[in-house]
Amino acid sequence: MRDVFGESLFGKQLKQFDEVNALAKSFAVNYCGNTIIRDSIFGIVTNYARKRELSIEVLRYPFGDEELWAFTFVKKGTLFLCVNSELAVCKQIFAVAHELYHIHCYAEDKDPDTIVSGSLLDSKTADDTAESQEDLEANAFAGLLLMPDSMLDEQIKLYGISGERILTDDVLMLMELFALPYKAVVLRLAENHNITLNKTQELLKVDASVVSERMKLTGKALGWQQDSKEISYFGSLLDDMEYNSENELLTDSREKADREYLEKIRKGFLDER
Known about the structure:
Distance between the termini: 32 Å
Oligomer: single chain
Number of domains: 2
Radius of gyration: 20 Å
Structural class: alpha+beta
Strand content: 5-15%
Low-confidence stretches: none
């Protein structure tokens, strides 16, 4: 098993981790507010783009490949963030926060090449180790934004979770509260100095099947493990069509043609799967 903690930004580059932490806190003040984010991240990425005057389309549909979490690219000046709705919702949330860091780097002209070339988040990068520096930072940013130090400390105190006595079920409770995957929660506990390195390694060694079984028995975090593959959201195309229809801006023939075109896109996607 790879050393997930040792290969994280916190484990490899503490100074850079502190810089990303400062960015996540500043970002939260400007775009998130003082609340646990969870699935609000979908609205936050859109709001960020709006405030930065970036054109963005957030697309959600089942990719038919659970190894592929999300990808982002630019075409004709518009950002396209595509999320695999076949994944557990907690993974979708982490994926959007991860890609948001790449979008931020693009908006700040820090490293626009990643998005221009196409950013791709797969299970290895998200759940194991990141190969590129920016993916390493994006993983850290996602965890810090979705599970900030102050809120983590607050919830630990409220629920009486204690460092070295922390159990898998305690991690599940935090997964429930913050809607994050198991490993992401364990890493945040380590990064925030709530647990020691030994406890971190102990929790990371817990088999995924054990975690899954405990979720079923306790019900904790179970809701965030469900997929949303029934969701097929193709950006603003349907929204624009509904707006035009409601405001009677379309002729009957044009509305019919637009709806048929949208259905053609949906069927085409399903045929590709």
